Amino acid sequence: MNERTRVGVLGSGLMGSGIAQVAAAAGHDTIVRDVSPPILDKAKAAIEKSLAKLVEKGKLQTTDRDATLQRLSFTTVTADLRDCDIVVEAVPEDLEVKNALWKELDGVCGAGTIFASNTSSLTIAAMAAATKRADRFVGLHFFNPVPLMPLVEVVRTVTTSEETFKRAFAFARSLGKEPVAAKDNSGFIVNLLLVPYLLDAIRALEHGVGSVTDIDKAMQLGCGYPMGPLTLLDFVGLDTTYRIAEIMFAEYKEQRYAAPPLLKRMVLAGMYGRKSGKGFYDYSANPPVVSSLGL
Ligand code: CAA
Ligand code: NAD
């Protein structure tokens, strides 16, 4: 990757806004695509809030904050990403939605553009096959919250060229992240291990092993985890977790990836966690209180 890379980001939700922020902060011109101006306004506000926190903590100079914001632009038109050197996709965990975008972009981007998906659980092969650039397709799996979590999994599928893999690895490093190489198996390294743990925490709640707060407290204080699993589920998004579980269960047919009924009920009720204001906890209260789940 060049010193100054033109980066495109598809999706400006939890992950896309964070990826765009770290790309722009690293000095790359970054253009973010989402479906509507109000959604993009929300993403811009989230980025400004995150940068403000970093300034407040003395981790970022105000001049660097301003330069970061200047390097960011926003659009609702996919074709505006045509001149990018790399496009990182962070739209919902749905193969059809992702592949519709990849097909559209494949027709407008130059031969040199690398396509990278931030998918949590889909295989990179399933997206690469929808394009004519399967050799220039890679996984770049970031972690939430992107500005704070150092890891990026760089995923090579069967068709990824060595050059693409190396460029993607260097790009992750250029963002100040610590890349690890992972094989293109559903869930890569982290979610292969993390997802069963999160789903088991919901099963423990369903079985009455402990209350919401006690399950969280137990894992925080007993294992030194920064967040309890139910808090982390609210943080990741229950809608996203449900989709991940469905995809991983379909891939492996193993019970540990099956979505617990309570997760499905909560998603049906629009309880997506922090992003919708309510999940295992109700975020309309300060501090948040445990939601009533009819258990
Ligand atoms: N941008 C900038 N600063 C931020 C921020 C953001 N987005 N989010 C939090 N901060 C700041 C806070 O303001 C806070 O600053 P102060 O210390 O000055 O108050 C600091 O970071 C620490 O935050 P908190 O005190 O709120 O909480 P914390 O010390 O517990 O740290 C955390 C927050 C880093 C998120 C930590 O709780 C943590 O590591 N949690 C686990 C996260 C995790 O597991 N992520 C992976 C999810 S799975 C995934 O991403 C993969 C997938 O495919 C689903
Ligand atoms: P999110 O729901 O917060 O954001 C998705 C964004 O994509 C929304 O802003 C939505 O408007 C936008 N979008 C929908 N259709 C679009 C389209 N056709 N073009 C452009 N934008 C479109 O989701 P998220 O949590 O940011 O997850 C995004 C991806 O990142 C998923 O594949 C998810 O599995 C993965 N991921 C999530 C996490 C996490 O902790 N939430 C961590 C790592 C990876």
Which helices and strands occur, and which strands form pairs?
Blueprint: E1 6-10, H1 14-25, E2 29-33, H2 37-56, H3 62-70, E3 72-75, E4 86-89, H4 95-108, E5 114-117, H5 124-128, E6 137-142, E7 151-156, H6 162-174, E8 178-183, H7 190-206, H8 212-223, H9 229-236, H10 238-252, H11 261-268, E9 281-282, E10 289-290
Parallel strand pairs: 1-2, 1-4, 2-3, 4-5, 5-6, 7-8
Antiparallel strand pairs: 6-7, 9-10
Helix pairs in contact: 1-2, 7-9
The structure holds acetoacetyl-coenzyme A (CAA) and nicotinamide-adenine-dinucleotide (NAD).
Nicotinamide-adenine-dinucleotide binds at residues 10-16, 33-35, 39, 90-93, 97, 101, 118-120, 142, 144, 236-237, 240, 275.
3D shape: globular
Strand content: 5-15%
Helix/strand order, N-terminal first = EHEHHEEHEHEEHEHHHHHEE
| Helix-residue proportion | 40-55%
Beta strands, count: 10
Low-pLDDT residue intervals, each spanning 5 or more residues:
none
Q: Determine the structural class based on helices, strands and strand pairing.
A: alpha/beta
**Number of helical segments?**
11
Enumerate the distinct ligands. acetoacetyl-coenzyme A, nicotinamide-adenine-dinucleotide
Quaternary organisation: single chain
Mean pLDDT: 97
Q: Measured on Cα atoms, how large is the radius of gyration?
A: 19 Å
Distance between the termini: 52 Å
Largest sheet composition: 8 strands, mixed
Strand arrangement, largest sheet?
3-2-1-4-5-6-7-8
